[in-house]
Amino acid sequence: MDSIDVLLVDDDDVIVTTLERCLRRENFTVKTAHSGMQALQLLHRQVPKVMLLDVMMPGMDGYEVCREIRADKKLSTLPIIFLTAKTTESDHIAGFKAGGDDYVNKPFNSEELVLRLRAMIRRTQDHKKSNRRSKDDPRVHESKLFDHSRVSQPIIELKSFKLNILTFELFLPSGKKLLLTPIQFDLLFNFMTHPGDIFSPSSLLSIIWDYPPETGSSDLVRVHIKNLRMRIEEDPACPAFIETIPGYGYTIRPE
After folding, report:
1. What pTM value is reported for the model?
2. What are the structural domains, with CATH classification, of the chain?
3. What residues contact 22, with CB distance under 8 A and at least 6 apart?
């Protein structure tokens, strides 16, 4: 069976036809689905390299589809980019809470969408290469930044936060344990292994998402950081761990 690059899920026939033609011109192999249920059925037969998922669909919406995928061990690391007409920050946070990796607002720029898809596929391929020797270890999750086959110290500790690089778990100063998404892990791993360094949104788009220059939006970084703070900070409105340096970016200060 030939591999699939993109599974495109949208209930709008015009969008599906337009996007499918665009992606095929760029040499992507594409499968399409017109509902969340149809998408899940296709996924259980064949897993694509990335999924483009509409948010507003009748019956099972995109958020619910995403949660179903993240709960399935065989599908949980599938990269998901939401296609959405919902443009508020709260809508984007809802998508990330459901497990999305990125979002593209409608109407979208097809050239930028292609660049994002290629970056996401490249990121997934890098995961597989770096984790090849650890694939039989059920504790190991995928990360763009870390080669799990070279683990020596499985815990990174900073300011009483403990990051387990084998299991994607973060232990808060309170003792509470959280299971991070791959993007959340990559952000924290990057910050915690470079304490004091300031990372601009554009640098994080390159480091974490592997996006080319001038691709992606600083809003993507900002909303991911906000969502992460809501999970780990005692007071997300006044963060003490991941700090914003106005005009520059984000950092975790050394102890």
Report:
1. 0.73
2. 6-130 (3.40.50.2300), 137-251 (1.10.10.10)
3. 110, 113, 114
Q: Concatenated DSSP letters for the chain?
A: ----SEEEE-S-HHHHHHHHHHHHHTT--EEEESSHHHHHHHHHH---SEEEEES--SSS-HHHHHHHHHTSTTTTT--EEEEES--SHHHHHHHHHHT-SEEEESS--HHHHHHHHHHHHHHHHHHHHHTGGGTT-TT----SS--GGG-S--EEEETTEEEETTTTEEE-TTS-EEEPPHHHHHHHHHHHTSTT--B-HHHHHHHTT-PPTT-S-HHHHHHHHHHHHHHH-SSTTS-SSSEEETTTEEE----
Residue 167's identity, in one-letter code, is T
Q: Which residue has the tokens 């593209």?
A: 104
Give 197-230 pLDDT, tens digit per residue. 999 999 999 998 888 887 777 888 998 999 899 9
